[in-house]
Structure formats: C-alpha cells, structure tokens
C-alpha cells in the first residue's frame, strides 16, 4: 500500500527575495527544539529562527547575553533534524562575533558545519560591517537585525521603542541600505515606528521582517512560545496571542496528578 507523501519545496534565500518581489508576505517563527520545529515546519512557516531568545525561553535567563555558541548549536541541530521545508536561520550569540571579523567567521562556520543550518543572523549595522563581509565571503547567507537589538540591552537599559528621533531613524535607514549592499538576504526590524519600518522596506530590495514594526514590511516574526501563550509575563503590544497553552497544559497536567493520586491511572487497558 502506498502512502501519499507530502511534497515539499524547500524555502531558500532566493525564494524569500522572490516572495518580496511578488508581494507575498513572509512568515517566520522561532523554534529551539525538535518537537516544536516539526509542528512549526509542518504548518508551513517559511522561516524558522533558532533565536538567542532561547536564553530567556529555554534557559530562564533575564537577557539573551548568557547563551553560548555551543548551546545555540545544540538547539539548531535539534531544529534542523525536524525541518523539511523552512529555511533555518540561527542567531550568532553575544560575544561570538563582536570581537573581530575572524571570530565572527569562525562562529558562523561552526554553526553551519555542526548544526546544518541554512543561514545566520547578527545584530547591528555599520559597527559589524567587516564581520558581515567576512561571513558573506565564505558563502554563508546573513540576515541582519536592526532597531531593538537585545544583545545591546545594557547600552539602553530598557526595551522601549527604538529610532523615534530623526537622527536614529536616519542611521537605521543607512544601516539597512549598508546591509543590503554588503549582500545580506533579509533584515529583521524590531520595535521601531511602523512608518519608519515601511520606509525601510520600500527603500531596499531584500525582505524586511518585522517584530513590532507594523504592517508595512515584507514579513513578520514572533517567538512561538509567545503566540502559543506558553510564556506568561511577556506582554508587549506587538504580540498577538493565539492560545493560552500555559493554562491548557497546566489543566492537563493537573488532571494527570489527580488521576495518579486517585489511583485512576493506569487502568487495566493501560498495563501489561
Ligand atoms: N519570549 C520572548 N519573546 C521575545 O520576543 C523576545 C525574547 N523573549 N527575548 C529576546 C528578545 C527581547 N525582546 C523584547 C523584549 C522586550 C520587549 C518589550 O516591549 N518589553 C516591554 C516594554 C518595555 C519598555 O517599554 O520599557 C513590554 O511591553 O512588555 C520587546 C521585545 C524580543 N525578544
Ligand atoms: C525576536 C527575534 C527576532 C530574535 O532575534 C530572537 O528570537 O532571538
Ligand atoms: Mg535574537
């Protein structure tokens, strides 16, 4: 008996640029492990980000700064084993690319070689120009990330909206154009005014993926645990919650506890 096999056409950096040209919006979500990545990929999400937000969501740290390159590679290789269709992008963690371009390239190569990921993401513009160049020269696709860049949280002290002033807005636009010129295949814009994000998206030919950047960009990204309502304390205005999984999972687990205590579980069919 033959089982109908689902046909997958893999998402590539080229197909994302084509999607922008055709006006088709790009969907992107995070994943940090095999089981979640399988669900996300099977639901036809175009891009899966192995975000350094794993530092918060998986490890319980307050910021993204503590997560290590080895830990990112562990998450990324778990995700890669589940994915058949999506493009998998991995955040290079804090401290693994800022020192110098050679360190940046070494880190990017380790991610590609040891996890099997398809691309890397780095935070910043002008400041990391030489590192981005190096990584691109090795044939590794790079996604940029501007606006609210969580790896530099201590420079700002808060997670407030970025680039509200004209000077900052101009620098962000210049950085976006620079990243495009260097050869990045896409850029994430985080928590900036919608009007500015739209202007950036219209000024460059590579896709702009927003998080808290309004509806005038080429795609959207969220942390999957936020949209499923697994995280509870994270409540920025840009988040749309589709479920309250924290509550639903809690209810299921409570029922299990009750069944064990009452000796209802396991029953005669659930034993050997
Ligand atoms: N669960 C989770 N989701 C994320 O989107 C995420 C992480 N973790 N960790 C890494 C970064 C940090 N990001 C953040 C963090 C805070 C806000 C934010 O808007 N925080 C406050 C407002 C703070 C302020 O205005 O001073 C909020 O409204 O919740 C946005 C993005 C996005 N990333
Ligand atoms: C929020 C997205 C863009 C990110 O960088 C992450 O999840 O680490
Ligand atoms: Mg990140």
From TrEMBL:
Free-text remark on how the cofactor is bound: Binds 1 Mg(2+) ion per subunit.
Localisation: Cytoplasm
Domain of life according to the entry: Bacteria
UniProt pathway: Cofactor biosynthesis; (R)-pantothenate biosynthesis; (R)-pantoate from 3-methyl-2-oxobutanoate: step 1/2
Top-rank EC class of the record's enzyme: transferase
Similarity section: Belongs to the PanB family.
Binding annotation for Mg(2+): 52, 91, 123
One MF annotation (Gene Ontology) recorded for this entry: 3-methyl-2-oxobutanoate hydroxymethyltransferase activity
Job of this protein: Catalyzes the reversible reaction in which hydroxymethyl group from 5,10-methylenetetrahydrofolate is transferred onto alpha-ketoisovalerate to form ketopantoate.
HAMAP family cross-referenced by the UniProt entry: PanB
Cofactor or coenzyme needed: Mg(2+)
This protein's record includes keyword Metal-binding: yes
Pfam families associated with the record: Pantoate_transf
Self-association state and partner proteins as the record states: Homodecamer; pentamer of dimers.
Active site, UniProt feature: 190
Chemical reaction(s) catalysed: (6R)-5,10-methylene-5,6,7,8-tetrahydrofolate + 3-methyl-2-oxobutanoate + H2O = 2-dehydropantoate + (6S)-5,6,7,8-tetrahydrofolate
Enzyme Commission number(s) from the entry: 2.1.2.11
Keyword Transferase belongs to the record: yes
Protein name as it appears in the record: 3-methyl-2-oxobutanoate hydroxymethyltransferase
Bilayer-crossing regions: none
Gene3D superfamilies: Phosphoenolpyruvate-binding domains
Predominant localisation class: cytoplasm
Key words, A-Z: Cytoplasm, Magnesium, Metal-binding, Pantothenate biosynthesis, Transferase
InterPro entries in UniProt: Pantoate_hydroxy_MeTrfase (IPR003700), Pyrv/PenolPyrv_kinase-like_dom (IPR015813), Pyrv_kinase-like_dom_sf (IPR040442)
Gene: panB
């Amino acid at each position: 008996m033959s089982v109908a096999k689902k046909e997958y056409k893999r998402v590539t950096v080229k197909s994302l640029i084509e999607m922008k040209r055709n006006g088709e919006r790009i969907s992107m979500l995070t994943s940090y492990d095999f089981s979640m990545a399988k669900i996300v990929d099977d639901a036809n999400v175009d891009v899966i980000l192995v975000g350094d937000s794993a530092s918060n969501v998986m490890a319980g740290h307050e910021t993204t700064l503590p997560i290590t390159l080895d830990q990112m590679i562990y998450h990324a290789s778990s995700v890669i084993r589940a994915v058949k269709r999506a493009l998998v992008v991995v955040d290079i963690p804090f401290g693994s690319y800022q020192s110098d371009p050679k360190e940046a390239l070494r880190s990017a190569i380790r991610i590609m070689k040891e996890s099997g990921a398809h691309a890397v993401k780095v935070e910043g513009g002008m400041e990391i120009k030489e590192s981005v160049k190096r990584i691109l020269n090795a044939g590794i696709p790079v996604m940029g990330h501007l606006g609210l860049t969580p790896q530099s949280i201590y420079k700002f002290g808060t997670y407030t909206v970025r680039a509200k002033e004209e000077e900052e807005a101009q620098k962000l636009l210049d950085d976006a154009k620079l990243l495009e010129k260097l050869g990045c295949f896409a850029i994430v814009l985080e928590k900036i005014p919608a009007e500015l994000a739209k202007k950036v998206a219209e000024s460059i030919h590579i896709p702009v993926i927003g998080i808290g950047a309004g509806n005038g960009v080429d795609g959207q990204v969220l942390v999957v645990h936020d949209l499923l309502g697994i995280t509870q304390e994270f409540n920025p205005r840009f988040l749309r919650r589709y479920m309250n999984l924290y509550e639903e999972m809690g209810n299921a687990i409570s029922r299990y506890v009750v069944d064990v205590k009452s000796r209802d579980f396991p029953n005669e069919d659930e034993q050997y």
